[in-house]
Amino acid sequence: MGFKFVLVHGSWQDARSWDGVTPHLERMGHKVWAPTIAGHAPGSDKNVSHADCVKSVVDYIVHHDVSDFILVGHSFGGTVIQRVAEELPDRIRRLVFWNAFVLNDGDNLDSNTPPHYRALFEKICQPDGSAMLPFPIWREAFLNDGDFALAKRTYEERLSPSPRRSHTDAVPLKTFFSLEIPKSYINCTEDIALPPGAEWGWHPRMSSRLGLYRLVQMPGSHQVNFTNPELLAHKIVEAGRD
Amino acid sequence: MGFKFVLVHGSWQDARSWDGVTPHLERMGHKVWAPTIAGHAPGSDKNVSHADCVKSVVDYIVHHDVSDFILVGHSFGGTVIQRVAEELPDRIRRLVFWNAFVLNDGDNLDSNTPPHYRALFEKICQPDGSAMLPFPIWREAFLNDGDFALAKRTYEERLSPSPRRSHTDAVPLKTFFSLEIPKSYINCTEDIALPPGAEWGWHPRMSSRLGLYRLVQMPGSHQVNFTNPELLAHKIVEAGRD
Amino acid sequence: MGFKFVLVHGSWQDARSWDGVTPHLERMGHKVWAPTIAGHAPGSDKNVSHADCVKSVVDYIVHHDVSDFILVGHSFGGTVIQRVAEELPDRIRRLVFWNAFVLNDGDNLDSNTPPHYRALFEKICQPDGSAMLPFPIWREAFLNDGDFALAKRTYEERLSPSPRRSHTDAVPLKTFFSLEIPKSYINCTEDIALPPGAEWGWHPRMSSRLGLYRLVQMPGSHQVNFTNPELLAHKIVEAGRD
After folding, report:
1. Per-residue DSSP letter, A161
2. Which of the residues in chain B have pLDDT under 70?
3. Residue of B nearest to C221 (CA)
4. B75 carries an active-site annotation
C-alpha cells in the first residue's frame, strides 16, 4: 500500500534537496510532496521569520489539499514540522524527524547548537539577513561520506544562503508535546553536522524529546539525500509506516 | 565444532521466543535448550519470586543434565543467568548477555529502568500479580525494525503477562562478579526498549558491569529474535565461541 | 588518482601490522610506506622515549623522501603522528586517526586510559622497560570480532612487548592544534580496547579534540587490520581523500 509523504528540507537547501530521494519513493508506490520553505529559494527575500517558514509549509499543504500523510523534517526542517503538526494535526498520520532538531517550547535552533557555530554564523551574517554554510564544514562535517566532487557539485548547485532569523527566532510549541501523532526518528550514524556526544549530538538528545518514538538508523552523514538517496528512501518508509 | 547453548528469554516471553533462532543454530551444528522461566508460561501462576525464576532454570539444566554450555540471557533473562551462573558455575563455558540487564548485588530490575516505566507497570499491575507490556510500546520501542503485521502477530501469539515480582525482587549476587566465566555482550544498535544514552541505555551501562567482556553488535531492535533471527543466531555464535 | 599513505602502527605491533592492508591499498592504485616505530621491533632496545618514537618516524619519512602524503596513525600511533605533523607539516596532505589517541599538550597516553589499565601495565612492566599486552585482553577486547585461532596466531606472530615510556612520557604539542592540515577520524564501532562511553571511549572523546574533522566509521574491533583488512583499506581511502 502506498503512503503520502510531505518532505521538508533543512537549512541552505530547498525542494531540490529531495531530487534523488523522491524517484525511489515513487517507484515504491508512494506519493511525494516537497515544498520549499519561505526564504529558502535561491534569490528569495531573506528577511523572513520562523513563523513565515511554518506558514509557507502549512499553506502549501492546504493548497495541495494533502491529508493522511507522513510529514518528514530534515535538520532545521524538524523545527518547522513541529509547528506544522500543531497547525494541521488532523491531516498528519505520522511525524518523521531525520537528524532533525526537536525544540522545546520557546526555544530557538541556535541555542541547540555549539557556541562556536553560533559565533560563526553571527560573524558571517550578511546585510540582507542571510548566512551561508562555509564549504569546508559542508565537505568535512555534512557530506563526510561523499567524495570531493559530490561535495563541490552539491554545494554549488543545491545550496544557497539561509535566513538567519529561522535559527534565532524563538519557536512557541504550546501543544506539540501533547499531540497524539505517532513519531519516528531517523539517525544517520556518521552524522557530525552536530558534534556527536551527549552534549550536542542529534541522537538521543533530540530523539528523546519525542517521548515514545520509533528509532530507525542507517549509515551515513547528514546528507545521505545526496550520498545514499535510495537507502534513505527505504528508511523513510520504515520510519513512516504504521 | 558444535557448541551447546541454553537460551533464557526475557519478560512477557517464553521458550517460543527462540522459535526462529534455534533452527539456525542447529543448522550450524549446535545444540539448543530453551527453558520457559517460572511464571512466564501463558496461564501459569504469576505469584512467583525472582528466586523461583532462577530455580526453574537451574532445575531445567540439572534435569536435562546439560554441561559445558554457553548460557545466553535476553533482557530480564540477564538477571536470571547471573544467578544461574552462581548456582552452576562449573557447567558454564561462557555467559552471553543479549541486550540484557546486568544487576549489581542486591539490586532489582525496576531500579534499572526509567521512572516512567516503573510508574506504568505499577499502575497496570493486575490482582494476580502480573503486568502486560502495552502494545504501542511493543510496536514502537521493542519491534521498531519490524512491520505492523509482525508486531501485531508476535504480540498476540508470543507474548503474555509477566510476574511483577520478577522485576521488583532484590537479587542477591554475592559471587557473580568474582566468577571466572568468560562473558560477552550482544548489543543491537537500534534497541530502544531502554532509552538510549548514558543514563538508561543498555550499552555500555550494562555491559561495562561485566569487567573484561567481548562486545558483539548487530543492527536491529530489542526483538531481532523475531525481525532477524538468522543474524542473531550468527551473532550468538560469535559471542559464544572461545 | 593514487594517494601516498604513511601508516603508523600502534603499541605491541610493528610494520607488519599493515601486512593485510597494504596489498588492498596498492591494488587500488595507492603507494604505501609503513615504518616500525623505535622500540617496537621484536628484540629491539625497549629503553626509548616518546621523542625517540617520533624521531624514528620523522627520520623514516625524510630518508624515503615522502611528501604530499596522508599520514595514518592507529591507537598509540596517533600520539606519534601528532608530533610528526608538528615536525613535517608541509609534507602532509591529511592526517587520519584510526581509533587513535589524540593527546592534549603535555599529556601522556597513560592518563587517557582507565586506572585499571595503568595499574596493570605498571605491575607487569619488565626490568628492560617493556610491558606486554596480556592475551585475554587481546582476545576479548582487541580482537573481539575475530575467532580464537586468529587471536592466537596474531598474538604469537605479530605482537611483542612495547616500551613502557612510550605511554608514560609527557608529549609536548605546542603547534599541533593550530596546524591547518585537514584531519579525519576512523572509528570502528565495536572497538572496546578503551571502554566505550563518554569517560574513556575513543569517539567522540578523542575525535572531538581535532576541531573540524571528517568522521568515517566501520564495523569491527580495534584490530580490523587483522579481521577485516580490505574494508579498512577502503575506509582509509575514504578518510584520506580530499
Report:
1. P
2. none
3. B215
4. yes
